[in-house]
Amino acid sequence: ENQGWVSRNLIGSWTPETCGGTPIAVKATPPPGTPETWAKNPQCRLVFPPSAEDATASGEDARVEICLVLEQEDARMERGSPFPYQDRLVEIFLCILQADPSEQKLTQFNKKRVVKGGVSLMSKRREVFLRTNLTTP
User: Fold this and answer.
1) 70-105 tens-digit pLDDT
2) Would you report the helix, strand and coil content of the chain in percent, each value rounded to 5?
3) CB-based contact 128:92 (threshold 8 Å)
4) pLDDT tens, residue by residue, 44-68
């Protein structure tokens, strides 16, 4: 069955200039970032244009299902450390925030903008995955 999936691949990396950490205190105290430094992290803006076929009879907003994957280099490709390669992996996670239509990039982290269901597990693994439904205009 065709689910109407559209795929986009974005390739990039974190550098000292593009690594802002997270202001969310999960495992580390204090958190490894601030709301302001968080904005240095790579951001990807998703825009879903309104679609007449997505509108419901009740006038409610339509929903779109998204699947996001964030990966880091495969630690098995270098010799030296044993499984589970904890010395080569860093903790990663995905977080979806709501932006205003006029904003191209968020300038700081604001937990009030975090979309319900829009946070993956924070994990020291090769990849993290986030599947959720977002409301479209």
Assistant:
1) 988 877 777 777 776 677 777 888 999 999 888 888
2) 10, 25, 65
3) yes
4) 988 877 665 555 555 667 888 899 9
At 96, give phi and psi (nearest 5°). -105, 125
Closest CA to 90 of 44, 11, 27: 27
Cα atoms in the Cβ-side hemisphere of radius 13 Å centred on 131: 1
Give the residue carrying structure tokens 């006038």: 59
Phi, psi for 132 (deg, rounded to 5):
-155, 170
Q: Would you mind telling me the total number of residues written for the chain in this entry?
A: 137
CA distances from 97 to 54, 72, 117 (A): 22, 22, 10
With a cut of 90, say whether residue 25 has pLDDT above it: no
What's the pLDDT score for residue 1? Answer: 46
Is residue 86 exposed (0-12), middle (13-18) or buried (19+ Cβ within 10 Å)?
exposed
Cα gap 103→106, rounded to integer Å: 7
Local confidence band at 27 (pLDDT 50, 70, 90 cut-offs) = low
